[in-house]
Amino acid sequence: MVNKYITTTLPYVNSDPHIGFALEIIQADALARYWRLIGHDVFFSTGTDEHGQKIAEKADEKGEPRQTYVDYYANEFKKLGGALSLSYDNFIRTTNPAHEAATQELWKRCNDAGDIYKKKFSGLYCVGCESFKTESDLVEGRCPDHPATQLEHIEEENYFFRLSKYQQYLEEYLAKEAVVVPEWRRQEALTFVQGGLEDFSISREKTRLDWGVPVPGDETQVMYVWFDALTNYISTLGWPEDAEGRYKAFWAEGEPFQVAGKDQVRFQSIMWQAMLKSAGLAPTHRVFYHGFITSGGQKMSKSIGNVISPFELVERYGTEATRYLLLRHVHSFEDTDITWERLDEWYNAHLANGLGNLVSRVMKMAEDNLDAPVVVKDQALEETFTAKLDAFRFDEAFETVFLHIGKGDLHIQETQPFKMLKSEDESVRAEGKAIIEKLVHHIYRIAEHLVPFMPVTAEKIKEAVRLNKKPDTLFARLDT
């Protein structure tokens, strides 16, 4: 067994939590629970990214102090912990003094390595991405991720990081198949690196942006938000002091694993890895990139009116069903289109009429006909299931569970034990009870495999088996 460290990206706190980040953090939580279940020591971190131009502008528009503004939104993201039944070990905020000190230490180490220099620069800047854009990045003169935002032409003196120095190192790093999932994202990163790397700006003039971590030794500059935010992956572990030994255990000697959206490849697998190398630190063991969620064939947008909030999902379906819907019905790697109509259909068909109905039928027969609870014990997870999770195919792992739900329903239909129990033949009644006992074992095994995905539901099923009692309705059918 190894020390497994898992972290999400840090959502930018300039708006309410959205379904895309809910997907990411539920995926990370499922992995953390799975790894704990099979015996690994796990440290799971998330948090909020709270510096930068967009946040400063939003706070100023509202007439609020920046810290007050980010405190409010950080708390909104913290609420996801309870709403989505998350098991993270730490919630880091980039305005935390310990994080700011770690970021300045990383800067100093990169500077000591000769990888930070100052120069005058002019270019097109996208406020939405908080980064400069080259002509090759643009589509019809606009940032493809923020086409409605006018690019700004900015000329100033900034500090730059010598990314170009690490071309060979990054090619060697990305040549290892394990470092990026899925494979085509690794190829995407490797192709980008092989095309040649340019040094990137890592600071802003304080006269233009004063909401950020101060650059060590230069009061006129603050750090670029990405240099600041990326450092969270090690500052959350207590780096650099590492008083509790978490950095050594989970990063230096463990397996650091990052979960991120597909638009993060350059930041997570290129820039961040070069920064770590510059500072003399170990690279990330692996980064998993998920796709986006769209709705009705369009990117979610407040102006379109198709935004789905994770809190709305929980209000309509409950926490466990929300976890189910995002893990089973969203493709692990590709973009997925969802609508409220599809969500309702999936909920009723697979939870209310599927899992919930099977557990209810089996435990009702057990409660009415068995003299004592069926003796069960936890077993190793099915190899087909673990293989899917080891490949980060949450959707396909869930499919293996629902195959067994279908088998349970089919077995009841074919054997009809409820009819056998009415027979005057004692041997037939005994056979009927044996079938019920087998079905109880079957739903207990299903519950074992639900632990990483739907931990509360899994425990309710196990408890029902232990008590030999039909549980309260697990998933009430929706009126649609």
Quick take:
49% of the residues lie in helices and 16% in strands. It is built from 19 helices and 16 strands. The mean pLDDT is 93.
Helix content: 40-55%
The CATH class label of the largest domain is Alpha Beta
Principal-axes shape call: elongated
- Taken together, the total number of domains comes to 2
Flag low-confidence runs: none
So how many helices? 19
Give the second-level CATH assignment, the architecture of the largest domain: 3-Layer(aba) Sandwich
Strand order of the largest sheet: 3-2-1-12-13-7
Largest sheet: 6 strands, parallel
Give the N-terminus to C-terminus distance in angstroms: 47 Å
Identify the CATH homologous superfamily of the largest domain: HUPs
Number-wise, the strands total: 16
The fold-level CATH name of the largest domain is Rossmann fold
* Classification by helices and strands: alpha/beta
- Determine Rg (CA atoms, Å): 26 Å
Overall pLDDT level: 93
Strand content: 15-25%
Overview of the structural elements:
- The chain has 480 residues and is α/β, with parallel strands linked by helices.
- It has two domains: 288 residues, 3-Layer(aba) Sandwich (Rossmann fold); 129 residues, Isoleucyl-tRNA Synthetase, Domain 1, CATH 1.10.730.10.
- Helix content is 49%, strand content 16%.
- The chain is built from 19 helices and 16 strands.
- The strands form four sheets. Strands 3-2-1-12-13-7 form a six-stranded parallel β-sheet, with helices on both faces.
- Helix 6 runs antiparallel to helix 7 and helix 16 runs antiparallel to helix 18.
- The longest helix has 30 residues.
- The two termini are 47 Å apart.
- 40% of the residues are buried.
- The mean pLDDT is 93.
